[in-house]
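We give the chain.
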Amino acid sequence: MLLALYTCLLWLSTGGLWTVQAQDTDADMSTRSHHRNLAPNNVDFAFGLYKHLVASTPDKNVFISPVSISMALAMLSLGACNDTRAQILQGLGFNLTEKSEAEIHQGFWSLHRLLRESDTSLEMTMGNALFLNQSLELQESFSANTKRYYELDALTTDFQDWARAGRQINDYIKNKTHGKMVDLFSELDSPAILILVNYIFFKGTWAHPFIWESTREENFYVNKTTLVKVPMMFQSREIKYLNDQELPCQLVQLDYMGNGTVFFVLPEEGKVDMVITALSRDTIKRWSSSLISGHVDLYIPKVSISEAYDIGSLLEDMGLADLLYNQADFSGITHEAQLKVSKVVHEAMLQLDEKGVMAAAPTAVPRNVTSEPLTIQFNRPFIVMIFDNFTWSSLFLVKVVNPT
C-alpha cells in the first residue's frame, strides 16, 4: 500500500506574521520553552533544504515553508517503525541523545499552538489531515499521538473512485484556506491508499503599507538577456537596512503587524546563489545586529507565484535516500500491510501586495534636508526570508527570479 504525503502553503501578503499577546502564564512559558528548543534545528534544516532546492532548480522561483515541511515529516515519523523513525527525526536535524522524541513532538505542538493563536488582525490557518481508504483502520497509537501533538483530522474516502476522492480532498483544503487554495489535486501520478496533507494559509498586514497610488510598471532584469515588466511597489520612510561588507548584497528589514520580521535581500547581479549558499543562523544574527536605520526610497515588485516540489526526491538528493522511500517502514500507521510512501509534495503559493493596517494613501514624508534618501530597488533576482520574531523559526524562504 502506498502513502502520499503533501504539504501545502498559501502566503497571502499584505505581509504579516502571527503572535500571541496574552499575559504569560506558567503554561505559556512552558509552551514557549518547548518551541524555542526546536528553533535551531528547524532553522538549520530550513537553510539546508532551501539551498538544495535552489541548487536543483537553477534560474527558477523558489518558495517553501520549511516549518510546514518539518512539521509534516515529524508527524509522519509517529507512524514509522524501527530505524525509519530515528532516520526521519535525525534527518530533520535532531540529536536523539540530546532531545527525546517526546520533547520534539511537544515542541511542534507548542509551535502549532502559537501559530493557531495568532493576532486577531491576521488570517492564519494551519492544520493536518489524513485521508485514508475506507477499508483501512489506523493504529491506535498513531491516531492518538497525531491527534495529541498535531491535531490530525482523519477522514475516510474511497480511493477506488479517485475523481470523487480528489473532490473531497480539494473541498476540505479549500474550506480550510478560506477558498484561496483550490484544485490542489487533479490526478495522482501513482496509486495511493492514504494521503497526508499539512497545510498553511496565511494572510497578514504590513506594519507600514506601501502606497497604492505609487505602484507602477517598471523594468525587472531576470538576467542579462531577459527583461520583464512588473508592477513595482513603493514606500519612502525610515527603514532598517544594510550594505553588507562580507556578502555581495544589500538588505532591508520590514516589520509586520504582530511578531513578524522579513528580510528582503538584494544580491549583486549574478550573485544571488552565492548569497544563498552563505545563509546560516550566524548570517541572520550578524545582519540583525548590523542593521542601521535611515531614510530609504524602497521599490519591491508586486509578486504572485505558485510552485510545487517533490520533497522526497529532494531529500534523496540531500543524502537521505532511505528517509521516506526504499526500505522505509511505516507499518505503525495502519493495521494492514506495510505502507510505503509514494510521493511527498509541497505546494506553495505566494501573493505579495501593498496592503497595510490602514488605507495606503499618499502621505507627507519627512526628509532630512542635508542628505538624499538611499534608493534600494529590487529590480533583479532577490531573496525573501520570513521569521517568527519571538522564536526565530524559519517560516518562509523565497528566491524570486522572475516575479511574473
Observations:
- Residues 212-300+357-400 form a domain with the Alpha-1-antitrypsin; domain 1 fold (CATH 2.30.39.10).
- The two ends are 40 Å apart (CA to CA).
- The chain has a mean pLDDT of 80.
